[in-house]
Amino acid sequence: MYSSLVCRLKSHPGAGCCLHVIRLCHQPVSTADSSSRPYPELDPYVSKKIQDGKRIGNGRIPCIQPPEDITQSLAKCISNGSMDNVLNNIDKYIGTGQKMERYLGSRKLPLDTRNLAVYKTKFFQQAQRKYKNELSQLDEDDIDSVHEMEENLSKEVALKLATAKGNWKPIHFDYTSTWAYILGGLTAYDYASSVYTLRKVFEYDKRFQPSTHLDFGSGVGSFTWALRKFLKSNNKLKEEFFVESSADMNDASRLLRYDGKDSTPNEIISSKGVFYRLHFPANENLKYDLVTCGSSLSELESSQLRLNIADSLWRRVEDGGYLVIYERGTNSGFQVISEIRDYLIQLQEFVEEDPQIRGELIAPCTHSMGCPRYLHDKIPCNYDVKYKNFQLSMFPSEYREIVYRNRLCYLIFRKNMHLELSDKKWHRIVKEKKRTKNTYICELCTNKGKLEEIFVHRRDKTLYNYTKQVEVGDLYRANLNSLLNKEI
């Protein structure tokens, strides 16, 4: 009888259809192989720069603040008399924004049809183990006892499913929630995350200067604020295309962009190459040098919808352009990023049939194999950002001085271009360095798709100084020689 229940669960239309391993929980456990640590041999070019006294990095995470001109526009918006409700209740907006931050940080993804069967099977097996003794003593001829046990198992599975489903609901941004999002620190996080990911693009490709930009789930425009930091003074974007389903978000974006003025209240805005849309245009023939998407795919209710959007975004990237996606550095955010990473890598198997999908993964991975954090580890692959909120005079002084530290998961793909061999040689620091009296301990995701732990001793002065300067999330430009297991 109980085996028949399991069969019914396995026959669910979503069972066995998952593209990815379902990550049911994360615990702070590392799977880096420390039994045979490789010894790093620094790249000669980097070694010479260190010996010449040149710095590779600053060894710490920079604190990012929203742009000064946007802060001034925000101050004008709030104090120009048309937003007295916000000005008079600014503490409430800040508090609401902070509650929203906590909600987004703890929110689980909704269980879609494909994942539901996997969870049901797992929870049913757990329930069987819980009632193992009762099941072993159960008389199958005793119909009442069998029925009671079935009810107990069903209740146990239903309770665990309710917990696993979490409290996911899409957020519909109206006027109040939009300004709570801006004032409560979430926009500052978006800006810091946008700066972090775009810096990776421009560090990798120093000649990249986009002339067109598509931003899906653009919010109030934090990606385009960040992009201005990296554009040369003589390079102006010819076209910016914002897709945001919230009309109130679009209104706020225009206010901040045009110095607190909004002379174009229509649903569809077109001004000097700047376009706002509530929905994705169906035509995929228009291509963009840079396509971005920040903290938006997790607002979709199923993995199928997320992959459909990711596919459409990828097809809109111009030859030689970049697709940049980030999500919050939570388990849910990591699952979204991992789904898209695997999907875009799998697409490369069909480039002969459809050349426009050809491209390569740039960051954070230096390989295209299975993600070791996703497949074998129990913590997400995420990276730290530090930031402050808008420095507004109407904010309490202690609130302006708070330095926030949050995390993000991200992906950067380049369209139709092969990586140079030099960038495929290196590794990514994926965990905060540990320091003892004379040693740095680093965990790397290597170009072989493995997590490796390395020791760097002070006696190797050049390598030690280099390791001191790089930070989690940076490339580690050294060859790992597994044959040189030096004793520290």
UniProtKB/TrEMBL annotation:
One example of a Gene Ontology biological process annotation: translation
Alphabetical keyword list: Iron, Iron-sulfur, Metal-binding, Mitochondrion, Transit peptide
MF terms in GO: iron-sulfur cluster binding; metal ion binding; methyltransferase activity; structural constituent of ribosome
Keyword Metal-binding: yes
InterPro entries the record matches: Mt_RNA_Methyltransferase, Ribosomal_Rsm22-like, SAM-dependent_MTases_sf
Subcellular location per the Swiss-Prot or TrEMBL entry: Mitochondrion
A cellular-component GO term for this protein: mitochondrial small ribosomal subunit
This protein's record includes keyword Lipid metabolism: no
Principal subcellular localization: mitochondrion
Reported function: Mitochondrial ribosome (mitoribosome) assembly factor. Binds at the interface of the head and body domains of the mitochondrial small ribosomal subunit (mt-SSU), occluding the mRNA channel and preventing compaction of the head domain towards the body. Probable inactive methyltransferase: retains the characteristic folding and ability to bind S-adenosyl-L-methionine, but it probably lost its methyltransferase activity.
Protein name: Methyltransferase-like protein 17, mitochondrial
